[in-house]
Write a structure and sequence with these properties.
194 residues; mainly alpha; 7 helices; 84% helix; flat
């Protein structure tokens, strides 16, 4: 009886360590792969396509929620995905994996940047990295847009948000205050006539 309990406890500990390592490793991979930018695109690629921890619709809903809530979008996404997979331990593992190596790398990069920032080669590398980040973000917009913008109303809501926030530079809370109620009314389930 005792040996069965010990074996079960040992098995549970191994599973927890394995999940900690898997979740931490996955978000570490996301963070390091997206070091030059495009974190949302890499998150989608890893969480939806590679690991299949979420479906496309769930990822889009989670990303929308993470962007609306206060805090960094990807930190919120790490907490969301980690807690979905393994509760508080999963959220902690995902946060640890997402943040540790980038903090170390940015400290090292910051040291070198402030020592060599005036060199033309450094400026060229940073300019190229910026272009790559924009391209990754645009790729994610196109991929997710194909799934979401399937009718006239979603396209109109997208265009309105883009114009109000992106072009007119209205604050995001104001744009949300205007468009969120319209979106909810449009998306609210309609009663089918009997």
């Amino acid at each position: 009886m005792r040996s069965t309990r010990r074996a079960r406890a040992s098995s549970i500990r191994r599973a927890r360590r394995s999940h900690w390592s898997n979740s931490r490793g996955t978000f570490n991979h996301i963070a390091l792969a997206s070091f030059v930018g495009g974190l949302s695109a890499w998150s989608r690629e890893v969480l939806v396509v590679e690991k299949q921890w979420m479906g496309e619709a769930e990822f889009l809903s989670a990303m929308t929620m993470c962007r609306i809530l206060p805090g960094a979008n990807q930190v919120n996404m790490a907490v969301f995905a980690g807690s979905k997979m393994r509760g508080l331990l999963g959220a902690a593992a995902a946060l640890f994996g997402l943040c540790l190596m980038p903090v170390v790398l940015i400290m090292v990069a910051g040291f070198f940047y402030f020592r060599f920032k005036e060199m033309p080669a450094v400026k060229g590398v940073l300019h190229g990295a910026s272009a790559a980040a924009v391209a990754l973000t645009l790729a994610m917009v196109i991929q997710t847009g194909k799934k979401c913008l399937t009718g006239l109303m979603p396209v109109l809501l997208f265009a309105a948000a883009f114009v109000l926030n992106g072009i007119l530079r209205w604050p995001l809370p104001v744009v949300l205050a205007i468009l969120a109620p319209i979106s909810l009314v449009w998306a609210w389930p309609k009663e089918q006539p009997t």
